[in-house]
Amino acid sequence: MLENAAKAGPAVGYSTNNNQGPGFGEFYNDDINGGVYYHTEMGTGGLTLRPGSGEVMAGMVDPSYYLGGPLWANGVRRMSNSNGQSTGAMAYYSDSGISLFGKANGMGDMELVSDNVVYLELGNYAWNDVNNNGIQDPNESGVNGVVLKSITLLRGL
Fold it and tell me: Domain ranges in the chain?
C-alpha cells in the first residue's frame, strides 16, 4: 500500500504536511529536526524489516544527531511502523567528510542475521513431539480431545 499524506491505511505517520512524499506528507521520520531542518531526506537506500518487531531499519545520513550523536556520520535509524517516529539510531562511522565516506553511504543493503530464531506456531492440532523439534514427524501421533486456547497477557501481569 502506498502512503499518501503520511497515511498508510488506518495508520498516520510522522508528518502529514511537510511537503515531502506522496500527498505532501511522509510516513517515516527521516529528518534531522531539532526545531530546524538541516536535512529533510536522510535515507541512503538500505532498508530492512524485522518481522514481529513493528519497526523498519534504514541507512541514514547523521542517523543519531537528534539524540546527540555525531554529524558527518552514517549509520542506521529504527522507525515505528505504527506512527513513523524514530525509535532509536546508531552512527557506525563519522568524520569531517575529508578522509573517509563522510555522509556518503558506505554500508549498502542491510540484512538481519540471527542464529537463535524462535518460530512459534499456534493451531488446532496437538501431538506428542518425541524429538522436541517442533515439527510433527511421521512417527509422532496426534493427541485427541485437547482444547487449545491462545491467551494474551497484559504487560505487568
Answer: 7-94
